[in-house]
Structure formats: structure tokens, C-alpha cells
Amino acid sequence: MAKIILFGAPGSGKGTLASRIIGVEPNIVHISTGDIFRENISKNTSLGVKAKSFTDKGELVPDEVVIDMVKDRMEKDDVKANGFILDGFPRTLPQAQKLGEFATADAVLLLDVPKDILLKRILGRYSCQKCGQIYNKWLNKPEKENTCDKCGEHIDVIQRADDNEETVKRRIEVYEENSAPIVKFYEGLGMLKRVDSTNTLELSDDEIKTLISPAK
Ligand code: AMP
Fold this sequence. Notes:
Layout: E1 3-7, H1 14-24, E2 29-32, H2 33-42, H3 46-55, H4 63-74, H5 77-82, E3 84-87, H6 93-102, E4 107-112, H7 115-123, E5 125-127, E6 134-136, H8 165-188, E7 192-196, H9 205-211
Parallel strand pairs: 1-3, 1-4, 2-3, 4-7
Antiparallel strand pairs: 5-6
The protein binds adenosine monophosphate.
Residues 10, 33-34, 37, 54-55, 58-61, 66, 88-89, 91, 95, 162, 171 line the site of adenosine monophosphate.
């Protein structure tokens, strides 16, 4: 059972690496805070209404909202039994410190990608509406046009509301403002592993297993 934190800029490939990890640990629970917000926004829940004004601008949702939401999710039985991939959390030092009070991870994977690739990845990104498989209109199209390689469903190219140039630039800036203290925090705890995330689809399953093994 693995307990993994994925940390990296928008477009660094957290979702793609998460799907590789699920390939070797099918029961692991993938907790993406961005996905939880998008689901709540689409259902117009009170959490969604609270989050939308921030996500629309590429700003962070306030710590107290995100921390409570993650804590609730992490306390569920499936996470206790099968471990977790945290994707998009923590994003601030207080989030990282609080997380340490209710969960321990085996490793924090810091996804490294050259900055020029980040923009191209995000602005071209779309996903299968049925299974969530991620594609890119320039870098990674499905083999058969508009048909998902994974589940065979027809795909409409619909992008995330916040994957537009202005918001993306702000999201990258927000990452740069917050990331250094988080990296230092996990480095200090001996939990950090740097991953070249330019093409994690080319890693073998054994390489993925080594990545998710405890850092120390
Ligand atoms: P993501 O899908 O991870 O890029 O997240 C999309 C948006 O959700 C972000 O731009 C933030 O507005 C919000 N969000 C996701 N995770 C967090 C977090 N840990 N802290 C604050 N805001 C978050």
C-alpha cells in the first residue's frame, strides 16, 4: 500500500503520473483537490459556490476550506485500507503542515518539467468525459480521432474552464510563489524525490514501483 503526494506546477503531469501509479496499484485512492472542486462547481454545491470565485481566476481556494475537505476525504475507510495519491494538495506551507497532523505519506514526488512545456501542455489539454483519460491536442491525441483509447467512448474536445492563457499564467505564478517553502519542508523531512516528468508515460511499471516506494 502506497501513500504518495504529487507536487508540481500546473501542467507538470500530476494527473498522468497518477494514472501510471493506478496502473500498478489499482486500488489506491486518487484524491485530486482540483477534481473535487470541479465536481462541486458543476453540481452547484455550497463548496462549489465558495470555490468557483477562486478557481475561475487561478487563485487558491482558502486554506481552511481545502484542509477540511481533504481531512474529511482522508478519514474514509477506502483510504485507510488502500493508501492514497494526493494530487494538488498541499499547495501552501500551512496545508503541508496541517496534512502532517492527520496523515503520513511515504514520499513526495516533485514533478520537474521545463517551463516552456508547461504552457503547451495545459493549453492543449482535454480529457475523456467518461473515464477522465487525459489527452493533448498537440502532444498526445487519441489514436482514433475523437475516440478514447482507454474506454472507447466518443470524446468532445472540451477544455477545463481555467485552462485559458490568462488564468494559466496566474496559476503558474501562484505555484512559483508558494512552492519553495513546501519543497524545503519535505526535503527537511527526507520525503522528497525529484522526478523528471517530461515523459512519465515512457517509464516501465518497475520504475513506477520504485518511484512510489518510501523515500527513506
Ligand atoms: P488543479 O486541478 O489541481 O489545477 O486545481 C484547480 C484549481 O482548484 C486551482 O487553480 C485552485 O483554484 C483550486 N485548488 C486545487 N487544489 C487546491 C489547494 N490544495 N489549495 C487551494 N486551492 C486549490
